[in-house]
Structures
1.
Amino acid sequence: MRERNLFPNTASFPQSMTQSYLSHLECSGCGKKYSHDQIHTFCSVCQSPLLAQYDLMRARQNVDREEITRRKRGMWRWREFLPVLHEENQVFLGEGDTPLLSLPRLEKELGLSHLYVKDESSNPTGSFKARGLAAAISKAKELGVEKVIIPTAGNAGGAMAAYAARAGLKAHIFMPKDTPFANIEESRMAGAEVILVDGLISDAAGMAGEKARAEGWFDVSTFKEPYRVEGKKVMGYELAEAFAWQLPDVIIYPTGGGTGLVGMWKAFAELEALGWLEKTKRPRMVSVQADGCAPVVKAFQKGAIFCDFWTNAKTIASGLRVPKSFADSLILQDIYDSEGTALAVSDEEILDSQKHLARMEGIFAAPEGAATLAALKELVQEGWIQSEERIVLFNTGSGLKYLDYKN
Amino acid sequence: MSNNILYIEDNPDNMMLVQRALESRGYHLLKAMTGLSGVEAAEREDVDLILLDINLPDIDGYEVARRLRKSSKTSLMHTPIIAITANALKGDAEKALDAGCDVYMSKPINIRELWARVEAFVPMP
C-alpha cells in the first residue's frame, strides 16, 4: 500500500520525494557528523550509536501538524520526520497508529484517574518491533542493501523477516534457541535464514556481528544502525497527538534494548523544536526490567552512566533478557533527564499482571508489557505516582506469541 | 602511579582504536599481541590496569587472567583486569569474571565507556 503524494504543489520536489527533513546523522557520544546518503552503522571514532537529525527549523516553517492528523493512518504519515527520502522505498505493512486504550477498571482498582495502555500488539507481526524494522529496512532498501542480519530475542526477528521479504531483501537471523516458537516460525515462514544460538541475545549479537563483518551483510542490531530508533520514535509523536499536543505525566516502558524509550525522548525533543507542544512539560520515563536481568535498574540505582554486563540473565520475558544494551548510556541519560526511575519486577509478578490485565481489561499482553502493570502497582504503592496523573503503560506485543512457557 | 595500561589484543584495528583513545587522555599504552607475551609483559612492566581480549592466538584470555592472578609477582593479584571481547559463546561474561577479571565489556568498544571504566581504576593523569 502506498500513500498518495500529499504535497502536489511543491514543485521543487520530484514526485517520488517524501519531503523528509533528514539532514545528517550525528554520533550520540562525540557529536561527529555523518552523511545520510551512505550506509553507516555506529560512530567510527567513539563507537557510540548514531542518531538521525532533521532540519527542524525549516520543518517548523513548512509542516502543519493538523495536516498530518488528517492523513491516512500509519507510521509513514510522519514521513517528514522519518529517514526515508523516496516514497517508493517505504515498506509498509500497516505499522503504527496503535490504539491508546483507557483502562477504566484497573484505574478504579488502583485509585488512579487517567490510566492508559498504548497497545502495540496490533502492529504487523504482533509487536512494536514492526515500527523500527519498517524504518530500518526501508532505509536499507533505499541505500541499496541486499542482505540484512539481526540478532534478536524474538519479535525483532519476525518483524525483520516480514519487512525484508516485502522489500525483496535476504534476511539472516540469529536467535537464542529458547526464543518463543512463534518468532522462529514466523521468521522462517517469511523466508529468513534462522540460526539458533545456544546463549542469550548478547551471544547472538556477537555471532551476528562476526558474520556481518565476514560477509558484508548489513547489521540491523539495536542501535548498531541509526534507523530503527526513528521508527520507534513515532510512538512519541502518536502520544503527543492523542493527548492533544500535550504529553502524559508518566510513561512506563519495558526496557530491553531501550530503542522505544530513547526514541520517544527524541520525539519529544523534536516536537519541542517544532513548537508543536501546547505544554512542554515532558513525562517522567520509567524503565521496567525483570529482576533476573536488570542492568539499567542496577546502573540507575548507582547513578551510573553505563550499565555493567548482567551475568546469568534469566526471565520469561525474552525481550527483557538483554544483559547490556548498546545504547545503555542514552537510556540512562533519558531516565535521569526526565526525573524518572527504573525498577525491576519478578517473573511471578509479570505473570500475575498478565492475567490481571487480561481479566480486568481484556488485553492479553506480552510478558514485557505485563511487566509495566506490575511496575505501576509498585509505584502507586510507593506513592511515586499521584492519583491524578496521566499514566501510559506500554504493551509491546501480543501475549499470543509467548505461549511456549505456558506449557 | 605510572599510568601504564597493558592491552593484550591480537587485532591491530582494536589496538589502534584503544591506543588513540587512551593516549588522548594521557595514559601510556603497553601492547601485547598474544596471551603469553601479555603475561610476560605484565610480570616485567609496571602496570596499573590490564585490558584483556579473550580470543587470543595462543592461550585464551581466561587462561591469561588465571595466570596473572596466580603470578609470582603478587601485585598482579590486585591489578584491575577489564575483559573486552566479541566472543559468541554462552557465558563469556561469567567465565571472564570467574577467571579473575574485574569488569566485562563487549565489542564494539564504546570509547566513552572505556574512559569511564579505566578512570574508575586509574584516575586520568
Note: The beta strands of chain B are 4-8, 28-32, 49-53, 81-85, 103-106.
2.
Amino acid sequence: MTVLNLVIFLPLAGTLALLVLPRLGERAAGAFWITVTALDLALVLVLWATYGGGMDHETRVRWIPSVNASYHVGVDGLSLPMLALTSLLFLVCAVYSLGRGRAFAALFLFLQSVCLGLFSALDLLLFFVFFDLSIVGMYFVIAGWGHGDRLRSALKFFLYTFLGSLALLLGFIGLYLGSEPHTFDIVDLTAEPPLKDSPGTAALVLLAVGIGLAVKTPTVPVHTWLPPAHTDAPAAGSAILAGVLLKMGVYGMLRIAMPMLPEAWRRYAGVILVIGLVGAVYGALVALAQENVKRMIAYTSVSHMGYIVLGLGAAGMAGDAAAHRLAVAGGVTQMVSHGLLTGALFLLSGVFYDRAGAYDMGRYGGIARNAPVFAGLTAIAAFGAFGLPGLSGFIAEFQIFTGTIGGGGTATAVAGALALPGILLTAALFLRMLHRTMLGGPGPDTGRVTDLRAAETTAVVPLLALSLLIGIAPRFLLDVIEPASAVLVSLVSR
Amino acid sequence: MSGALGWALPALPTVAGGLLAVGGRRADRPAPAVAVAVAAVTAGLAVAAALLRPSVEAPMLAGLPVGMAVDGMSSVLVVTVSAVTLAVLVFAAGEMPPSARFHGLMLVFSGAMLVTVTATDLLLLLMAWEVMGAMSYALIGFWWREDGRVRSADTAFLTTRTGDLGLYLAAGAAFAGAGTLSLDGLEATAGPWRNVVAAGLLAAALGKSAQLPFSFWLSRAMAGPSPVSALLHSATMVAAGAYLLLRTQPLLAATGWAAPAAAWAGAATALLLGTVALAQSDLKQLLAASTSAQLGFMVLAAGTGAVAGGTAHLVAHAAVKSLLFLVAGAWLAALGTKDLGRLHGVARRHPFVGAMFTVGALALAGIPPLSLWITKDTVLDAALRTSWPLYAVGLAATVLSAAYAAKAMLLVWLPADDETSATTRAISPLEKAPLPPLALVAAGFGLVVVFWTPWHRLVGGPPEPPPALTGLAASAVLVLMTFSWAVRRYVRGSLQPVVMTGPRWASSTAVNWLHLERAVSAVIVRPVLALAGALARFDDRIVDGAVRASAAAALRASSPVARRIEAGVDGAVHAIAASGIRAAAFSVRRAESPVDSVVRGVGSAARRLGRLARRPQTGQVHIYYVQAVVLLFALAAVLVLLG
C-alpha cells in the first residue's frame, strides 16, 4: 500500500468506520472526522515532500483486463496541488461543520476519497467512476443538508452534470476505440495520442469530452446548474463544490483533452479561447447584478473558470512556448487559488444563513460594527478573489493574462485584452458586496449577525493564510506546477 | 548587507503595518507610537539606501524574477516618500484618535509606494501599485459607517483600477515583444508591441495621477481623514503615476506618439483642473484639484523629456501639498467640524500654523523664490523647447495656479462674516511639529537649480539645461501680477461667488470637476449596470429557460412511456441494471468487444443510479433517469456504428 493509495482510501475507511460504529456520538464523530482529514492532509504533505518529479507514486493493478482498464494512480505537478487543495479543504470543512453529525461526516469522507481518487486517476474508466461518484456524493450533500429549494437544486445539479458525464463517457469510449492497442490507460494514451489519422473523429471525441468537462467546469452556456446548487447547498458543500468539484472539469482538460487530442485542441483553440473569454466577462457581468451573496459568488466562479479556459485555449494557439507555459501554469495556480479563496468565501457566506437565514445583501449592512472578524476576513477573501496582488488570485491571473496577451499572436492578445475588464467588474461586484453587507448603515438583519465562532475562524484563516503565502512567495507551488505545465505544453504542440 | 537593506526598506513598514492592521482593538493604544517609530526607522533606512544603493532580486514566476533597486531617481523618491510618511504619521499621532487599523494601513500604504518606486520590473511594480490602490480604498473609506464615504472609496478604487488594467496589458505586450518585464530597456520592445506597452503604461499613470479623464476620483478621495489626504496627494499614490512616466520616459520618446500624448494630457490637466481649483469654495476640494493640476506639470515633464525637472517638481510639490493638507486637517480638527465653510479667517486665530500655510500657498502659487516657481519653470522650459502651444498652455496653467493659491490663502486669512467659528481645542505640538520642516523644503527646494548638474546626474534622463533666466523672469512677472490682482480682488469683494466670470455653464462645469464623474456614470457605469441586469435576466430566462424547456419537452414526449413504466419503474431500473450485469458477465466471458465495456459501464452506472433514483421520491427522477439511460444507449450505439 503506497502513500498515495493510503491518501485516497483513508477517508473511505473513515466512512466505513463511522457506519459500523453507530454508537459514536455527534461530538466524537466530529472529532473522528477532523482526525481522519488531518491525517490525510499530513499524508499528502508526505507525498509532496517525497515527490520526485515527473509521474511519481504510481500504482498499477489489473482491473478489467479485457478492455485494458486498470486501477492506475499516480501524481505529477498537475495533480499534486489538487490533492493538497482537496485534503486541506475537506479538513477545514470538517472543522467548520463541527456538530453536523455522523452521516454528514461519513458522506464527506466518502466524497473526499472520490475527489482524491479522481485527481490521482491515470485510467479513463477509473477517472469516470470517480467523476460520477462525485456527482452522486454532492447530490446527497445538497439534497440531504441543503436549504431552500434543495431537492430541486440537487436534482438539477445531478441531472445536468450526469448528462454531461455521459458525453464524457462517450468521448472516453471514442479515445479507447481510437487507440491502438485499445486502452483506457491515461499514460499510454498520452504517450501515443489516439485518432492521429482521423481528425474528424478526433474533433467529435473532443466535442464529447469537451461537453462533459464544460458542464462540470462550468463554462457558459452550460453553467446554469451552478447558481441554484450553490445557493441551496450547505456552506461546507458549497466550499467543496466550488473548491474541488469544479476543478475536475478543468483538470480533465489538462489531463485528458489537451494531451490526448493535441491536434484537435490546437485546431479548435480559437473556439476554446472565445468560450473562456465569454465566460470570464459574462460571468462577472451576471454576478454584478445578483442580490443573493451566494449566487453572486457562484457566478464569479463561472468567471474565474473562464480565465483558466481562456489560458488553456491560448496555449493551443500558435505562439511562444514560454507564454503557453505561463498561461497553463497560471491556470493550475488559479485552480488552487480559486479553491482557497472561493472556499473561504462560501464558508463565510454560510455565516449569513446560519445567523439570519438569508443571503440577500439588502437585508444587511454595517456588519463590521458587531462582527469585525467576519467583516475583515470576508474583505480579505473578496480582495483576493478579485485578484489583488499579495494574494494568490493575482499570481494566477497575472500568469494567465501575460501568457495569453504575450503569446505573440494578435488573436490571443485581443482576447486577453478583452478579458481584462473582467477583473475590473469582479472588483466592482465584490466592493459592492462588501459595501452592502459589511459597511455603511445597518439593515434589518444586521443585528442578528454575531461574529465568527472559533470553529468558523479556525476553518477560514488557514485558507486565507495560504492564499497570502502563494500571493507573496509562490515558488513552493510553482516549482511543482511549472515542470508539469512545460510537459503539457510540449504534448499539446506535438 | 546591502541586500538586506534592499528588502528591509519596504518590508519594515509593510509587515509592521500589516500586523498593526490585523491587531484588533488591543493594538489601538500603542499604534500611533509604533507607527511613528517604524516610520522613523524607515526614513533612516531610506537615507541609507540612497547612499548605499542596494539592489535585490528574487525568483517569482517562470523566467520572470522580481527585483528592487535604488538608483538615482529611486533614491530621491524613497527619501521623499519616507520623510513625508514620517511627517504625516507624527501629525496623525496628534490629530487622529489612536487606531491600529488606521496607522497600520498608512504604513502598508507607504511600504507599497516604496516598492513601487524601487521595482525594476513590471510585475513587482504592478503588485505594489495595486496594493497601494487597495490601501487607498481602505483609508478613504476609513469611516466606513457612512455610506457616502464608502461610495467615495469605491469610486476612487475602481477608477484607478480601470487605469491599472493598462499595466496588465503592458506586461503582456512587454512579454510578447521583449520576453522580459524589466523596466529598463522597455523602449527596445519589438515592433508594434512597444506601442501597446506605452499605451498601457500611459493609461495606468494617468489613472493613478488623477489626470484627465480620470481626475474626478481625487475629489472623492477627500472623504478620508486629513492625514490620508496629506499622504495620498503628495508623495504617494498620485505621485506614482508621474514617477512611472518619468521612469519610462525613454519608452514614451521612442514610440513617437506617447511622449506628445503624455505632454498634452499633462498640460490639459494642469490647465483645466486649474480652473476647477479656482472654482472651488471648499478648501480641501480646491487643494485636491490643484493636486491634479500640479501633477499635470510632472506628466508634461515626462512627455517633454524633462526628467530631472519633473522629479524636482515632484519632490517640491510633495512638501508643499503635504504641508497644506496637514494644516487644513489641523484646523478642521481644532474647529471640531467637517464643515469647511467655517475655515474662514481661521489663520488669524492660529498665527503659527497660519504662517506655515501661507508658505505653502505662496509656494503653490509659484511666487519667487519659492520652490515650485523654479521647479515648474524647468518643466515649462522643456515644453518651450518641444512646442510653443504646449508652453502657452503651461504658462496659462501657471497663471491659474497663482490665482487658486491666492484664493486658498485668503480664504483662511480674511475675517469671517460671522464670528461663530470658535476653536474647540488647541492644535497639539505633535500636529505642529512636522510643519516647519515641510515648510522649509517647500520654500527652499528651488535651490536645486543652483546644484543643477549634480541633480541632473543623480536623477538621470536626457540632457536638460537648467531653467533659462528669461523663462524664470517671465513666469515670475506673470505670477506676481496674477497673485496681486487676485489678492486685491478677493480683499475687495467676498470670496463668494466664484471669481470666474463667464457663462454660467462654464462656472458650473468647473465647480463640478468638469462633470467628469457624471459623464463616466452616464457613459460607462449605468450602461454596464443595465447590461449586467439584462444579462442576469437573460441567464435566468433564456439560458436556463432553454434547459428547463428541453427538460420539460423531454418529459412530455416520454410521458406516455413514463406512465406505463411509472408503476414498475423500480423493476425497470432493476431490469436494466440486471441486464447490464448479465451483459457485463457475458462480456467478461467473451472479453473482446469494446461494446462490452460500454455495456458494463452502463450496467454498473445503472445499478448505482437505481439506488439513488429511489431516494428523493419526487416521481420525476425516475423519468429523467430512464431518459438518461436511453440516451446513453443511443449515443453509444451511434458511436459504435461510426467506429
Note: The longest helix of chain B spans residues 516-566.
